[in-house]
């Protein structure tokens, strides 16, 4: 498939299809983890059982996972706010704002710069929040 091509090299329909496939895979994997660990976590296990500690750890993981699900939108919001604040600087204007004399390639690169910066912000803020909760 086209998973390894740059987004600018794909047409809109193929890009949307790839995003839908990636979201579907991610949701199904998270759902599978929740279902499998939930089945084991809710089972009644005596303290003498060798799986007792595993059951306790799975309960903690599920609780942290539900807290983390609320932190992801918060991290995305914080990244968008930071991107908007940084876009007011002179450096961002040079890197992201189109000039009337720019060619289509330069305009695409400037848009890509803005998107890459926003992507880096989202990933770093969300990972920072999740590592604080999930560790």
| Count of extended strands | 0
Spatial separation of the terminal alpha carbons: 35 Å
Strand content: under 5%
What general outline do the C-alpha atoms trace? elongated
Mean pLDDT: 84
Q: Fraction of residues in helices?
A: over 70%
What is the C-alpha radius of gyration, as a whole number of Å? 21 Å
Class inferred from helices and paired strands = mainly alpha
Q: Quaternary arrangement of the chains shown?
A: single chain
**Biggest β-sheet, characterized?**
none
**Unreliable stretches, pLDDT < 50, 5 or more residues?**
none
Number of helices: 4
Order of helices and strands: HHHH
Question: What does this protein structure show overall?
Answer:
The chain is mainly α and 135 residues long. The chain has a domain at 63-134. It has 4 helices and no strands.
Observed structural traits:
135 residues, mainly alpha
Lay out the secondary structure.
Blueprint: H1 12-41, H2 52-86, H3 90-96, H4 104-134
Summarize the structure.
This protein has helices at 12-41, 52-86, 90-96, 104-134. With 135 residues, the protein is mostly helical.
């Amino acid at each position: 498939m086209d998973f390894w091509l740059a987004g600018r090299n794909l047409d809109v329909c193929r890009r949307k299809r790839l995003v839908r496939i990636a979201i579907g895979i991610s949701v199904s994997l998270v759902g599978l983890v929740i279902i499998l660990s939930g089945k084991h976590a809710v089972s009644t296990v005596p303290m003498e059982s060798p799986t007792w500690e595993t059951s306790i750890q799975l309960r903690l993981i599920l609780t942290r996972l539900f807290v983390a699900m609320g932190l992801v939108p918060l991290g995305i919001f914080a990244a968008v706010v930071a991107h908007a604040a940084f876009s007011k600087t002179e450096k961002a204007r040079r890197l992201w704002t189109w000039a009337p004399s720019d060619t289509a390639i330069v305009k695409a690169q400037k848009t890509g710069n803005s998107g890459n910066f926003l992507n880096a912000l989202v990933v770093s803020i969300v990972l920072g929040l999740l590592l604080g909760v999930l560790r």
